[in-house]
Amino acid sequence: MFCVQGIIVTDRFRELERPQTGRLKDVVLMATVTGFESLRFPRKSDMKQFAELFEPLFLGSSNEARRQAAAALSQCQQIPETVAALIGGMPIAIAAIFLTRSKAIADRTLITIIRERGPEHAAAIGRRPNLSPLVVDALVEHHNPPGLAARSSAVKAAAAEQASQEDEAASLRTAREEALRREIKALAGARPQNIPQAPSSATMTDVHAALLVRFARSGEIILFSRVLGQALGTRDAQVERILLDISGQLLATSLVALDVDVADAGFVLQALYPHLREPFGETSHAAALIGAMDRTSCRAQLDAWLEAAAEDAAPAARHEAYFAENTANDTRHVGPRKVAATSVNGQPQRLFGRRRG
Fold it and tell me: Which residues, at least 6 apart from 80, have a Cβ–Cβ distance to it below 8 Å?
């Protein structure tokens, strides 16, 4: 059952085909069209039911009602293809506005109308603001309306330019993805390094920023920490200290200091610290935290952290050989040969073991 503005139409709608006043059919047709227009997102079942109701009502109504219905449906974003073909195949006085304005007509329907109808229908289609190359080719092949040849060249040139731009964009995207894959492989094969490095004032590269966002989204915290450590130029212990601050203050300071995009920084903070997703006025806690920070002061604070971490790192132990270069005179050496021993009161002293009774 299909309800249209107070009129309930059942499967007995075919009774309307019986000889009676045409005014009733006009009213029911417009009510049906108005009911369909009110559906913002018509379902598949709605489309099917409307198509079944529309054809007999449309064919049984007056030309004036048909023109009104065609004009109304030309504003819809989607209509059943059978309905579009039916209206498009009507005499030009009824179909003109629909063929010129409707965005819901598929290219194959337009091409069929071009092939089966006359030059008037082709001229109406030729006035559409956006024509695909296939429709333009069909118009030129069957009717060639005045001025369409030039428009065909322009459309094809625009299509070629768009294709070129899409190819270029795809190439750039492929190159970026390949760079990310190489970076991920390098990170996956790298061993953690705890060697302190001098603090760096360089900003984060696009690859590092993209990797941080990717690893934050997937929850791969180990890879995330390695990328952050590379960007900061610091050891793992300092990165761990930053990430263990559940307030997000230290990580936010680091990201702002590294000049990470505000949107990316906010996403990373919310991914790692879910409580920062909560609203804070008209924004989130993460956005408010980043918005309250200044890059210059964050940079100074980060450099201070890294310098302190470098100073706290223990110096590398100096290597000393276990034996002296002249092993014969090295009292630390234990071997089968005789060992020089010290004496107390003229008696030789044993260096190792206990004296036996």
Answer: 47, 48, 50, 51, 54
Q: Residue with structure tokens 């100096």?
A: 318
Q: What angle (nearest 5°) sits at the alpha carbon of residue 181, between those of residues 178 and 187?
A: 145
Chain position carrying tokens 């209206």: 87
What is the pLDDT of the chain when averaged over all its residues? Answer: 77
pLDDT, one tens digit per residue, over 244-254 is: 988 899 999 99
pLDDT band (50, 70, 90) for residue 22: low
Distances (CA, A) of 123 to 3, 100, 136, 237: 37, 9, 11, 74
Residue pair 235/195 in contact by the 8 Å Cβ criterion: yes
Burial class (CB in 10 A: 0-12, 13-18, 19+), 256: buried
CB 252 within 8 A of CB 289: yes
Question: 179, exposed or middle or buried, with CB in 10 Å at 0-12, 13-18, 19+?
Answer: middle
- pLDDT per residue as tens digits for the range 220-256: 888 888 888 888 887 778 888 889 988 899 999 999 9
CA separation (Å) from 210 to 96, 215, 228, 236, 300?
A: 52, 9, 11, 20, 24
**Reported pTM:** 0.41
CA distance between the termini of the chain:
117
Q: Are strands 343-344 and 2-4 parallel, antiparallel or unpaired?
A: unpaired
What is the spatial distance between Cα 229 and Cα 135, in angstroms, rounded to a whole number? 56
CB neighbour burial string for 279-317, b if at least 16 within 10 angstroms, e if fewer: eeeeebbbbebbeebeeeebbebbeebbeebbeeeeeee
Which are the contacts of 142, defined by CB distance < 8 A and separation ≥ 6?
Answer: 114, 115, 122
Residue with tokens 């974003």: 77
DSSP 26: H
